[in-house]
Amino acid sequence: MTSEDTAFGSVALDLMERALDAQGLRHTLPRRTMLEVVAGMGRPFTATELTERVAGRDPHIGRASVFRLLQLLRGSGLVERLHGPDGELYTLCLAREHHHHVTCTVCGQTATFSLEDDRAVARAVERIGFRMEHHVLQVFGVCPACREHTEEPSR
Ligand SMILES: [Zn+2]
Ligand SMILES: [Zn+2]
Ligand SMILES: [Zn+2]
Questions:
Q1: How far is the CA of 57 from the centre of ligand 1 (A)?
Q2: Tens digits of per-residue pLDDT, 8-47?
Q3: pTM
Q4: Domains in the chain, please, with CATH?
């Protein structure tokens, strides 16, 4: 873990604590444990991975508690659900403004980006008679680290 990851983790932990406080939820030790694990994940994770890591810290915290927390965090917008290479993934995401995710098909890591002309999405559906309410757009690709490992250097 780099110091950058650790800094991100503590900012994320603080934001998650505050979001749950705002929903009137009590501070409990299991809650703190689960949040610390989420903050330390470092990359998108499956609900099963999260449950296993949490159980490694405290075997008394079950799947139901982990799922309930994930739903609360999704409600606060700090955790997002993404499509991963092999199914559903959750990711901690602190971006507040409208954005999209690009997810690596090799390692599952994700990054955010924005479109230069985001209104183009609304216009495209207006052309077929829809009025857009919102959109979710996710791109798949190969991240810089995986490209380095998988692509032949060009000659
Ligand atoms: Zn996001
Ligand atoms: Zn990758
Ligand atoms: Zn958009």
A1: 27
A2: 888 999 999 999 999 888 889 999 999 999 999 989 999 9
A3: 0.85
A4: 3-92 (1.10.10.10), 100-150 (3.30.1490.190)
